[in-house]
Amino acid sequence: MSILMREEYFQVRGRIINGLGKADEVSEEAKRLNVNRVVVVTEKAIQEAGVIENILKSLKNGNIEYIVYNGVHSDPSVKIMDEIARLVKESGAQGLIGVGGGSSLDATKGAAIVCTNGGSIRDYIGENKFKIAPLPLIAIPTTAGTGSEVTWHISVNDTERKLKVTVRSFLCVPEVAILDPNLMVTVPAKVAAFTGMDAFTHAFESYISTKGSWIMTETLALKAMELIAINLRVFVANRQNVEAGENMLIASMMGGMCLSHARTGIIHQMARPLGALFHVPHGLANSMLLPYAMEFSVFANPGKFANVARVMGIKVDGLSEMEAAKATIIAVKELCNDIGLPNKLRDVGVKEELLSQLAEDAMQGRDLFDNPRQGTVEDLIKIYRSAY
Ligand SMILES: [Fe+2]
Fold first, then answer.
1. Residue 103 vs residues 73, 119, 304: alpha-carbon distances, Å
2. For residue 199, how far is its CA from the centre of ligand 1 (angstroms)?
3. CATH hierarchy code of domain 189-387
4. Where in the chain is the domain with CATH 1.20.1090.10?
5. Which of 31, 110, 121, 214 might form a disulfide with 8, Cβ 3.0–4.6 angstroms?
6. How far is ligand 1, taken at its centre, from the CA of residue 303, in Å?
7. Ligand 1 centroid vs 319 CA: distance in angstroms?
């Protein structure tokens, strides 16, 4: 029990299936959900790469009727989610299958809510704003990063109001998540690197979070970081290494579970405006901020940082707790270098004169994030400057 007598909870929903070739058995899962007609939601590039072929074959062989919607793009909008929901209604589909990265899965999750609750996904922005369970949904990730197949939230791009907003409810978690590393063999190395560091950041930030983190989330987070430390380099070097891919998918899923309960921290808080102002890919923004934000937060909880060093395989025998804690930061820098990520904001188009603006914007979102050390706007400017 927590000595602080805080509330500790871990809520689960949905069935998680893991294994090579498991996406090829998707029709079995659809039948289990009593679904005979589905809309398969994905991105055009994913369909063109042949990633969904076996999934469609399985549906056909299982006598499940399907329509493919391949219009998802990054940062899916209100319009896309409402459009998919309309297609589902018109086609008489009883369920959805989302195949892709976080964008495809979020678009599918959003549409499934609109299908049963009516209106537009815009009506459900915020926490617990819809009451009826979404239409049955099977989520099949093709990247190892967001963990959207198990998370409680959906990122929605409200293009009309120029806002990135969130729909959050336990009911957002899909009924079924299928983790199949076969679907990741065509992922570009760069995407594997960005998304892998996003998964690491979810696990790390939820692990050191001051709210919602407890033995359930901590155990999953430490295991996720261990899996990423062992497998991310191998996976980026060769996406056809399905063993490394499988471990990355598991780590990403665990990270998603952790962030749904314990949230993220200052790194996600600061990565957000980098995406909004300079279109820096989310995982890359996280990875570039990680070492400097870790230097900022390390003194707030050196014990937890030292635990991360241990699971990352750093030899900590003979080191003090603080030395071990600081060794974690070096290990993270090495990992990012080894997977070929740029490490300076100046190299990805960020303008130096806008660092203060970035910090101001990041401060707007501070309530959404739970970091062990709270930063002032000056602190955030300092971190951005170090990363610049
Ligand atoms: Fe993230």
1. 7, 21, 32
2. 7
3. 1.20.1090.10
4. 189-387
5. 214
6. 24
7. 31
List CB-based neighbours of ion ligand 1 within 5 Å.
198
b/e code 48-86 from CB counts within 10 Å (16+ = b): eeebbebbbebbeeeebebebbbbbeebbbbbbbbbbbe
Q: What is the pTM assigned to this prediction?
A: 0.96
pLDDT digits (tens, 9 = 90+) for 233-267: 999 999 999 999 999 999 999 999 999 999 999 99
Q: What is the whole-number distance in angstroms between the Cα of residue 268 and the centre of ligand 1?
A: 6
Å from CA of 204 to ligand 1 middle: 11
How far is CA 73 from its chain centroid? 16
CATH class of the structural domain 15-184: alpha beta
Mean pLDDT, rounded, for 118-143:
97
Q: What is the mean pLDDT of the chain?
A: 95
Query: What's the confidence (pLDDT) of residue 27?
Result: 98
Q: Which residue spans of the chain are classified as CATH 3.40.50.1970?
A: 15-184
